[in-house]
Amino acid sequence: MCVKHRNLTWTLALLFLSGALCIKMNVTYQLGHICAVKGSSVVIPCSYDYPKEHKVEEVLWGHEKYHIYDGPFLFDSAMKNTTSRFQFIGDKEHNCSFLIHQIENNDTGKYAFRFITDKDKFTGKYGPTLKVVDLNISLAKLNGSRSFKEGDSVNMTCTNSCDGGHRSSIFTWLKNGEPIHEGPVLYVSNISSTNTGNYTCSLKTQRATTSEVINIDVEYGPRNTSVSIIPLKEVDGSYFKCICTSNANPPVENYTWFKIDENDHLIVVGNQSVISVSDGGQYLCSATNKHGSQNSTVIVKFKEPFNRGLLLIPTVAVLLIVTTVIAITREQQVDSHHDDGGVIYSTVCSYYKKPKLNVYLGLLSTQRTEDINQQRL
Ligand SMILES: *[C@@H]1O[C@H](CO)[C@@H](O)[C@H](O)[C@H]1NC(C)=O
Ligand SMILES: *[C@@H]1O[C@H](CO)[C@@H](O)[C@H](O)[C@H]1NC(C)=O
Ligand SMILES: *[C@@H]1O[C@H](CO)[C@@H](O)[C@H](O)[C@H]1NC(C)=O
Ligand SMILES: *[C@@H]1O[C@H](CO)[C@@H](O)[C@H](O)[C@H]1NC(C)=O
Ligand SMILES: *[C@@H]1O[C@H](CO)[C@@H](O)[C@H](O)[C@H]1NC(C)=O
Ligand SMILES: *[C@@H]1O[C@H](CO)[C@@H](O)[C@H](O)[C@H]1NC(C)=O
Ligand SMILES: *[C@@H]1O[C@H](CO)[C@@H](O)[C@H](O)[C@H]1NC(C)=O
Ligand SMILES: *[C@@H]1O[C@H](CO)[C@@H](O)[C@H](O)[C@H]1NC(C)=O
Ligand SMILES: *[C@@H]1O[C@H](CO)[C@@H](O)[C@H](O)[C@H]1NC(C)=O
Ligand SMILES: *[C@@H]1O[C@H](CO)[C@@H](O)[C@H](O)[C@H]1NC(C)=O
Ligand SMILES: *[C@@H]1O[C@H](CO)[C@@H](O)[C@H](O)[C@H]1NC(C)=O
Ligand SMILES: *[C@@H]1O[C@H](CO)[C@@H](O)[C@H](O)[C@H]1NC(C)=O
């Protein structure tokens, strides 16, 4: 290095009365501090110099977390690593600029350039300090809290702390990874379940960057509570299976089936989505989650009796039914997994194969109570 050359220089100086022949080896970093958003790519500008008679053979970039002379190095031109996130974009003249792709949090710290010539080696001082930041989202809601309910409005603002208070970055907003908006603020008004999703922002020019995730999960009480009826071949004296379904967020935690007696009293007959019906009568299902409950939009009416009473139906009636049923049964044999036909079966079958004869779906206006206060993110 130069110390080594100094003797020579002094010699030369004495010989030529000049002290200007020592060209020091040096490395210059144009930036002292570099701030980058996680996921982005960043260039560390750098230039270097050495005596003209030297020829550069190897260039290396190191990080303060490793040994400055012995490495390991992030980049070493003597190694052919093509998959590395670290790329030397300089040359073997005077440009030692360094490119880091997909910045990670642990790329934080000081970097140094080292080069080896045919005559000497030189490592620059630890130079530029890289700072890695996340994009942040701040929420502006009328109601302050981070919870969302239907009808709420929220402004989400993306900030890049590398901008140091100036809004110089251009942002893209994404919902579930799909770009939906460009600009620093995403304004979501009159929130409904269609706004449910994961929101992030990223730098428009650096799509690999991403902010924290804001999850909008609009909760609501049960909706579209309805009942479907599946005719059964007699199972334990039951002839129909009734299934109650409802859309709710969070999902329905409690289904309650009621039978409505002659005095319009409600009797609980089931606490699951499915009940088996063996008696005639009127049935109603109610679905509940923490935000409220909703009754099924229909009351299921089963005509009495469709059980043993059937067997007592006068022969004439049976014959009448049988004639109508035979045609129906033919159509329906496709779904019938049982092969035990016969008059009685066909008659009974008509009751559970053709529920229209026995089931009346009476419309009941949807009643709904909702706890609008507790919906939360
Ligand atoms: C590096 O060397 C060049 C050429 O000798 C010189 O012009 C420059 O001032 C030096 N820089 C530093 C920081 O020493
Ligand atoms: C080159 O890649 C190998 C394996 O991927 C790794 O062990 C080595 O440290 C890398 N060297 C440099 C200089 O990046
Ligand atoms: C060094 O090379 C990079 C990439 O080619 C270029 O962007 C940069 O301007 C160069 N720096 C100098 C000082 O020439
Ligand atoms: C840096 O972090 C990444 C993941 O975030 C990890 O894969 C990698 O091994 C880390 N590198 C070092 C040197 O700790
Ligand atoms: C950005 O968010 C990170 C965590 O996600 C936090 O550590 C940091 O303090 C936040 N910065 C600002 C400026 O809010
Ligand atoms: C959101 O921003 C718009 C336009 O700047 C403003 O009119 C509105 O009041 C803001 N809403 C909230 C909840 O901050
Ligand atoms: C704010 O939220 C609370 C509970 O989440 C609710 O009771 C109140 O009505 C809300 N206020 C406004 C203005 O939306
Ligand atoms: C909010 O959305 C609901 C339906 O989701 C709609 O009925 C209502 O009119 C909307 N309100 C405003 C102010 O846009
Ligand atoms: C949102 O993120 C959460 C947690 O990572 C995940 O469970 C959920 O499926 C995501 N939602 C969507 C709509 O992608
Ligand atoms: C309720 O059903 C109607 C039509 O069947 C549908 O348009 C609507 O999206 C459903 N609502 C919910 C919350 O599933
Ligand atoms: C279901 O809800 C009803 C009324 O809403 C309640 O009486 C009953 O205890 C609940 N059952 C279960 C298992 O949570
Ligand atoms: C469901 O219907 C029953 C009987 O008509 C009624 O007492 C109850 O209040 C209804 N529940 C809801 C949530 O509408």
Automatic annotation (TrEMBL):
InterPro entries cross-referenced by the UniProt entry: Ig-like_dom, Ig-like_dom_sf, Ig-like_fold, Ig_CD22, Ig_sub
Transmembrane segments: 309-328
Pfam families reported in the protein's UniProt record: Ig_2, Ig_CD22
Keyword tags: Membrane, Receptor, Signal, Transmembrane, Transmembrane helix
Superkingdom of origin: Eukaryota
Ig-like domain: residues covered: 128-211, 222-301
Secretion signal span: 1-22
Name of the molecule in the record: B-cell receptor CD22 B-lymphocyte cell adhesion molecule
